[in-house]
Amino acid sequence: MTLREFLLARIGEDEDAARAAAGPRWVPAVAPDDEGGVGAWLVTLPHRGDPRGPGPRVATTSGHPEQEHVVRWDPARVLAECAVKRQLVDTGSEEVLRTLAAPWSHHPDADGLG
Asked: Considering the entire predicted model, what is its pTM?
């Protein structure tokens, strides 16, 4: 497997996961507790009638930092980043490809890529 093939396979996996996820856009929301405080930090789909309001739940997180992280990696962003990565794979130098491959260095298919 070449480095380009390896990268395209990993990008394809990310695209498949993003397309399979509820989405495309996620928003932060809070479920109140009985005292009016935060009962749960939620990630939801936008509400159909009010894009600022929460809709169906995607995830419950342990706090605000985790909530913000999950929201930032909604399917739309993942797909946009995959499109950019595909362009870099098509036009990038060997150094650029190695840099792109770094996050997958522990992937079983990375062995032998140098």
From this structure: 0.84
Task: Give CA–CA dist 38/87, Å, rounded.
Answer: 42
Residues 46/25, Cβ–Cβ less than 8 Å: yes
pLDDT value of position 41: 86
* SS3 assignment for the chain: CCHHHHHHHHHHHHHHHHHHCCCCCCEEEEEECCCCCEEEEEEEEECCCCCCCEEEEEEEECCHHHHHHHHHCCHHHHHHHHHHHHHHHHHCCHHHHHHHHHHHCCCHHHCCCC
Whether 56 and 92 have beta carbons less than 8 Å apart is answered as no
